[in-house]
Amino acid sequence: MAHKIITIDGPAGAGKTTVSKALAKALGCIYVDTGALYRGVAYEIRNRRINWKDEAVLDTFLSDIDLQFTTTGDDCLLTSSGTDISGVIRTGDISMLASDVSAHPLVRQALLDIQRNIGKTRTAVFEGRDMGTVVFPNADCKFFLTADLKIRSRRRYDETQPGNNDLETIEKEMALRDHNDSIRKESPLKPADDAVYIDSTHLSVDQVVTKMIAFIG
């Protein structure tokens, strides 16, 4: 297959991660969870107690942070200064902080080059919220994957460790994040004009992947 960039955008819990991994495996290419980058920034802000609302402090912090993706088998791991942080960036508080900091222009600009450099030389499936609209506006194939809020909340609930959150709290947090991501001035969550819109509410992962492969050709 010729070198291609494939983007999958959409709200939290729509199945982007599962579908992106499955699609990448089917195509024999790499999968990149770009949302993990923002979670990584949020994690380090929390870990280092950074006052990210102070632009000078944030700018210094971003110039020092070292986030990298490494591939191990079928997994794409996120490291910070060489330490694997993939397992500690999926908590509810990190998700909410990631949503907040991702709206900041300094953060988005700092992570833009990391994302684009990955797609320069090899076929990759990029998962995120503005992959097809901002990061890769000329991507070969763009998808916007969504699902009903209650279904997305249930999926996220099933993924969390027991006792971490109740279903009602997850649904409220997800609705708030949907709202915040959609109204932010910097790279709001929305389908690219040329994206293929897929509602996964009543579709299995295999059905979604089959639809995508049909469009990719």
Q: What do we call the CATH topology?
A: Rossmann fold
Number of helices: 9
What portion of residues belong to β-strands? 15-25%
**CATH top-level class:** Alpha Beta
Distance between the termini: 10 Å
Which CATH architecture would you pick? 3-Layer(aba) Sandwich
Total tally of structural domains = 1
Kindly report the spatial arrangement of strands forming the biggest sheet: 2-6-1-7-8
Low-confidence runs (pLDDT<50, min 5 residues)? none
Quaternary organization: single chain
Q: Specify the CATH homologous superfamily.
A: P-loop containing nucleotide triphosphate hydrolases
Radius of gyration over C-alpha positions, nearest whole angstrom: 17 Å
Biggest β-sheet: count, sense, barrel? Answer: 5 strands, parallel
SS-based class: alpha/beta
Net shape: globular
Structure commentary:
- This protein has a five-stranded parallel sheet.
- It is α/β, with parallel strands linked by helices.
- The model has no long low-confidence stretch (mean pLDDT 89).
- The protein is built from nine helices and eight strands.
- It is globular.
- The chain has helices at residues 16-27, 35-48, 55-64, 92-101, 105-118, 131-135, 149-159, 167-183, 205-216; strands at residues 5-9, 30-33, 67-72, 75-80, 83-84, 124-128, 141-146, 196-199.
- Helix 1 (16-27) crosses helix 9 (205-216).
- 48% of the residues lie in helices and 18% in strands.
- It has a single domain (5-209), classed as Rossmann fold (3-Layer(aba) Sandwich).
- Strand 4 (75-80) and strand 5 (83-84) form a beta hairpin.
